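BUG: 3D viewer hangs when loading the predicted structure for this chain

Environment: internal workstation, default settings.
Expected: structure renders.
Actual: progress bar stalls at 90%.

Input used:
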Amino acid sequence: MKELWTKLYSRFRDLILYGIIGCLSSGLDFVAYTLLVKVCDWHYIVANCVSVLIGITTSFTLNRKYNFKVTDNTMRRFAIFLTVGLSGMALSNVILWLCIDVLSLGEILSKLLSIVLVVFFQFLLNKYITFRQTEE
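Structure tokens produced before the viewer hung:
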């Protein structure tokens, strides 16, 4: 049984660590968004943009160091990661608008839904583009 778990972990290590780091970064994003919307009374789109940028920066730093363990081309990789993150932010803003303004769902529930949908989209882009191992 231990061998099976070891084999599964080895095969899905990147996804597992990305999920852990993603939960941490998304949690930080969610807390920042909630504070900006509920405490500071910011518009949900502005709050989302700020909170997503906080999440992007945290996620890049942790994934680079602990998950994908790449140290080359940091600025280039961050530019790509930021582009992926901004595409996720755009998708998140659309989801928020649909949920809040069209479907009349609450701001917090809508943010949770957007996080879940955007995480999978960004994992694929980051694994195969941003943190792809380069041949030396």
